[in-house]
Design goal:
Radius of gyration: 22 Å
Number of domains: 2
Oligomer: single chain
Mean pLDDT: 77
Distance between the termini: 35 Å
Order of helices and strands: HHHEEEEHHHHH
Structural class: mainly alpha
Number of strands: 4
Low-confidence stretches: 18-23, 202-217
Length: 217
C-alpha cells in the first residue's frame, strides 16, 4: 500500500508543472520516456526524508527477497551467476555476515558525513544489508543452521513482519506530517520547488534566453 501511495504521490508531483516541456497535455498518451521524466521530476522535488523512507523500504524488501531467492537457487544449482556458497577454513560464511557489514558501513558513512541530514541514497545499502540479516534471523536466534528446517520459517515471518511494520510506520509518519500522502500539502511543496527552479532558470519553461518570472508565476 505504501509503495502504491508513494508512486502515485511522486507521479502527481512530477505532473504538477502543466507547462513543463516534457509533460504532454491532458488526454494524450505518455511515452515510456515521458513517464520516466515525470517520475524523475516528482522524485527530485520530494523531500529527502520521504525519499529516504521509501528507498529504505524498497531496499530492505529487495534485499530480503533476493537473498531468499538466491539461496533457494544455490541449494538446487550450486551457483547463481557470481553467487555461490562461501566457505573459509571449513566454515560456511552465511549471508548475514556481509549483510551486517554493509549495513554498518552505510550507517557509519551516513553518520560521519552529517548526522543531522537524511541521506536518501545511503539508506539503500543500509536496507539491503538489513534484509540480508533478517533472512537469517532464525539462525541468529537458534545459534544453529535451521534455514531449511521448520524452525527456519521464523526468518520469513520476521522478515515480512518487519517489512509490514516499516511500511505502516512510514505511512503513519507521512499522514501525521502532512495529512494523507498526495494531498494539498504535497502540491504546495512541489509548487514551491518548481517556482524556485524557475527562478534559477532550472527548467525549460521559459525557453533559451528568456527572463524567468517571479516565483509562483
Amino acid at each position: 500500500m505504501l509503495g502504491a501511495a508513494e508512486v502515485a504521490r511522486v507521479w502527481r508531483l512530477g505532473r504538477l508543472p502543466a507547462t513543463h516541456a516534457d509533460v504532454p497535455a491532458a488526454g494524450r498518451q505518455l511515452t515510456p520516456w515521458q513517464v520516466a521524466t515525470v517520475m524523475r521530476a516528482g522524485y527530485e522535488v520530494s523531500s529527502a526524508r520521504d525519499n529516504a523512507v521509501f528507498n529504505l523500504l524498497a531496499a530492505l524488501t529487495t534485499g530480503f527477497l533476493a537473498a531468499r531467492g538466491i539461496t533457494a537457487r544455490l541449494r538446487t544449482h550450486g551457483t547463481v551467476g557470481p553467487f555461490r556458497d562461501l566457505k573459509r577454513g571449513g566454515r560456511h560464511i552465511h549471508h548475514f555476515v556481509p549483510g551486517a557489514l554493509i549495513a554498518f558501513a552505510a550507517g557509519g558513512v551516513g553518520l560521519a558525513r552529517d548526522p543531522d541530514r537524511v541521506d536518501r541514497w545511503l539508506v539503500i545499502p543500509f536496507g539491503v544489508g538489513i534484509g540480508l540479516v533478517l533472512d537469517e534471523a532464525a539462525l541468529l536466534l537458534e545459534f544453529e543452521d535451521v534455514y531449511w528446517t521448520e524452525e527456519g520459517v521464523l526468518s520469513v515471518q520476521i522478515g515480512f513482519a518487519t517489512i509490514g511494520l516499516l511500511a505502516a510506520v512510514a505511512y503513519a509518519v507521512q499522514v501525521r506530517g502532512r495529512g494523507a500522502p498526495g494531498t494539498e500539502a504535497d502540491w504546495l511543496l512541489a509548487a514551491r520547488a518548481w517556482s524556485e527552479l524557475d527562478a534559477m532558470g532550472g527548467t525549460r519553461r521559459h525557453g533559451p534566453g528568456a527572463t524567468p518570472g517571479p516565483p509562483g508565476d
